[in-house]
Amino acid sequence: MNEKQLKEWADFKANLSKALAQFGEQTADILAVKQLIAEMSEELVRLKTLGQVDVGPGFTDAATAKSFVEFIGGVYNRDAALLKNMTEGTDTEGGYLVPTEFRPILIRLVESFGIARQYATVLPMSRMELTIPKLASGITVYWVGEAGAITPSQPVFGLLTLTAKKMAALVPVTGELLEDTTIAIANLLATLFAEAIAKEEDRVAFAGSVAGGDPFDGILNDSTVISVAMGAGKTSFADVTADDIASLVVGPVAAAAEGARLLLHRTVFNVIRCLKNTNGDYIYAAPGGNQPATIWSYPFELTDVMPAITDTAADTPFIGFGNLKHLYIGDRKQMGIALSPHVGFANDLTYIRVIQREAIAVGLGTAFGALKTAAV
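^ that's the sequence the OP posted. Answer follows.
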């Protein structure tokens, strides 16, 4: 290779190196743009979650949202003058009653996060106790011949007393969070409150046990609910069969079957979705069109408040079934908010304590069934 060719080769390598360097810079720019797009997408999802883009049942009015955050801020900062202008009084726990204009928004959020309140019969309570009639048995219809005597029949009613109890949830907040009074922050705070209330409401409504220290018996542990036991030796949740589920869904009275649904934990569902009937067909049917997924043709709700596979034990109810309109929630129209600065002291967090007063009861036990494992 002569001197001219060597120079041309050197120039070529220099130009190639320069081009590669420029390409590398462009590649870095492209990667940076992709990263920015990804971050913007994540931010969009976050804003939707907080309610900035799609607020759903939360705050939609900027003025109301600002007022709600200022109310929480007043509790946080112990601003008595501000709270005096915003609230009608204090609750018995030393906090402040939530202003009436905010409570419906919080309850709507509870309905969106919880299952029980979506389908249950909600009864307003003006006092801490409410006595209502409940149907013990219905009218019986008879066929009679011409001019034959009609057998008299009448419904049997009982009385059900709802006594509101106090439910409390702790939600951590920071002073920095309350500096922004946008709709997004208002919905974030409201969502935290509502999620905590909805989860506990569902837990007690479905799996509550007075014997275990809960204020009310839920569907699984109410003595009037139809109890369906699995066969001898089937002491584990994983022993459940298609026949067990079939026995459960035929237990409640026929009048309650329409609108009935199964209630179970997702880990239990993983067992049931593999079960087949005697023809070899799965009893679980995937959703299709406008039809929801079903088990033995009934819709179901998966909720982590129900017993999980890891909770398995003998003589233990773990799947519920029935029409939730026969579950009553007595709604005491009071909700209080108080401050708890000590719980999160080590982490520089202040907890807002949200108090909800309500009663939960099974109105018609024969409208529900509870599947439990064998005793031995």
